[in-house]
Amino acid sequence: MTETETRTHHDGKQQIRRAVAETSSVEDVFDDTYKEQEGPKPPTMLVWRNIILMSVLHVAALYGLVLLPSASVSTLAWTAVCYLISALGVTAGAHRLWSHRSYKASFPLRVFLALANSMAFQNDIYEWARDHRVHHKYSETDADPHNATRGFFFAHIGWLMVRKHPDVIEKGKKLELSDLKADKVVMFQRRHYKLSVVILCFAVPMFVPWYFWGESLSVAYFVPGFLRYAVMLNATWLVNSAAHIWGNRPYDKTINPRENLIVALSAIGEGFHNYHHTFPFDYATSEFGCKLNLTTAFIDTMCFLGLAKDPKRVSKEVITARVQRTGEGSHKSG
């Protein structure tokens, strides 16, 4: 590479970073100054409580799968509704709104998303957003909570079964989280999280089919309750695992996150992961808007109804420049 080409390449990177800095207001931009400590890694410490709970959950979900044929059509429809609501609590709520602040939500919408997030039961919004910002800032390093370079199992579920790496804890404490602390909805949910999970993740999904159309308690408890919850968890975890391992990288071939359509379908739009890690502030997490992206369609609807506003978007010019500079050549428009 000539001196002129090197200077042009450097200037291009600086322009992208300036564009990101001007658009993103949270610490979700990768920090390439972080260096992992040399020497042996700290010993892996198992969290047996989590291992046991995860095992029990998945056994209960398998039993729910056995009961699935005996569930009524109304119960199956209710299960799908609970899945969608809980998914939106993660994707439109904890992820795109609170982790990346990629759009602004009114108080009623924030309340709905907080309730939906409790139905999802994936840690409270404050903790979820903090860990996700650390994930973006230190992706695929020791400071990444679910570092995919440690393998599929670790990135998928293993990270919840062991103590966090000391760097994850250290970097998490240093993040600027004043926006989360200032949000009364976030902090109210955090104070009452355990009770909200019992009610919204388990009691409500069970009570509605049992009370309103006479579904058996066992089916109501294990299908819209445990089975729906376990499937939702694994769909979210696939974003951390599969979408960091399998797929193409049309926007930045220098990072691990990939475009994975299966993950996009299961996680209602979160599988366009190479794009998302390249442009974390884009509310759509994808160049293609609502295509295979129910979460983007939901946010667009909320904007239309006046319940959300100011969705951040990346310009076509910036996308094209990035594709040409760092893409692997697999980009397809439209």
TrEMBL record:
Membrane-crossing residue ranges in chain numbering: 51-70, 76-98, 193-213
Protein's cellular compartments: Endoplasmic reticulum membrane
Enzymatic class: oxidoreductase
Cofactor(s) required for function per UniProt: Fe(2+)
Entry keyword Ribonucleoprotein: no
Keywords for the protein's UniProt record, in alphabetical order: Endoplasmic reticulum, Fatty acid biosynthesis, Fatty acid metabolism, Iron, Lipid biosynthesis, Lipid metabolism, Membrane, Metal-binding, Oxidoreductase, Transmembrane, Transmembrane helix
Residue ranges with Basic and acidic residues bias: 1-14
Keyword Lipid metabolism: yes
Chemical reaction(s) catalysed: octadecanoyl-CoA + 2 Fe(II)-[cytochrome b5] + O2 + 2 H(+) = (9Z)-octadecenoyl-CoA + 2 Fe(III)-[cytochrome b5] + 2 H2O
GO molecular function: iron ion binding; palmitoyl-CoA 9-desaturase activity; stearoyl-CoA 9-desaturase activity
Any one GO biological process: response to fatty acid
Positions of the UniProt region annotated as Disordered: 1-24
Primary location: endoplasmic reticulum
Annotated ranges, domain Fatty acid desaturase: 78-280
E.C. number(s) listed in UniProt: 1.14.19.1
Recorded topology in the membrane: Multi-pass membrane protein
Example of a GO cellular component annotation carried by this entry: endoplasmic reticulum membrane
Matching InterPro entries: Acyl-CoA_DS (IPR015876), FA_desaturase_dom (IPR005804), FADS-1_CS (IPR001522)
Domain notes: The histidine box domains are involved in binding the catalytic metal ions.
Protein family (similarity comment): Belongs to the fatty acid desaturase type 1 family.
PANTHER family xref list: ACYL-COA DESATURASE, STEAROYL-COA DESATURASE
Protein name: stearoyl-CoA 9-desaturase
Organism this protein belongs to: Cyclopterus lumpus
